[in-house]
Amino acid sequence: GPENMISAFDPAGALQFRKRIGTPGDTVLAPMVQPERVIFPTGAVLEVVDRRGIRQKTVDLGRPVRSGGVAVNDLVYLSVDSDTGGRIAAISLTKPFGDPAIWTRLAGGTVRTQPQLFENVIYFATQQGSVVAMTNDPTLLWPPSEQMPSGIFKVDGLIRAQIRVDESGVYVASTDSKLYGLDPITGKIRWEYFAGTPLVNPAQPTADTVYIYVDGKGMVALEKRDTPRYQNPRWINATAKEVLADDAKYTFVLTDAGYIAALDKKTGAEQFRTDRDDFIAVVPHVNPNDNTLFAITSDKKLISIRPVTRAGVVGRLVMDVRSVELLPAS
Questions:
Q1: Whole-model pTM?
Q2: pLDDT of amino acid 267
Q3: Alpha carbon separation from 39 to 42, 55, 111 (Å, rounded)
């Protein structure tokens, strides 16, 4: 809310801390969680607290933050504003004095979505439709080509959704109605999915599938590897609006009716669902070793859910007893 009270819980539901971050009214962007600390971008600073919520330091960037960031050891990569336009910056958390930026680089547009870091390469997208990959030198990674004369990939529309990156691709959703799967090393198109309507939601890759919500259609599941250049969906589910997780058999989704469902991963058909239907948001949790789901209810509770599929209980999602209040009782 406007008071910037942040609550942090461990996976068992125990409250780790509840703390005001930054100045009331400032936007607090997505936290960067490290083993010993949590970093919050807000205003023109990075607020750093330990895992108990005790403030460690405030890093004054001297420039407004425009995106969430990604942290590696003592460096944070994020988007900032400058007099000459949007920039990607590498910020030191340990520099003792002066400008904490190790380097900044003009982004060629406005970057409001979180940069992605994969195998020491920073990937980011401008709202104006450019996708850039660069090493932490910083130098451009993608070689110039006929498709990309400047080594920068450009879509025919705008990019409003978060890009995603993994070992198989860079996934770019654009208002030109296409989801692109790019080669992470060269930037060349591996495949495209034409949705027929502007795409404003991010793709979500898992081990073998790429999911994306398409306005007016629902959740679309695409094959991740060994695909033709032009993709046809594995399935489309009209009621699913957000993917929580998947495993070998099921895709777990939040539906537009407010319940959580398990879909057959091969067909998209609903297999079972939660009894309650007051979920308003979910916390994606793609973990092949633990398919516990986390969701937020309309009465501001955070609840964990265990998918139970053994004999006798197939047909429903069992609610874990652990639930916590997101806000103190008034």
A1: 0.89
A2: 98
A3: 10, 10, 19
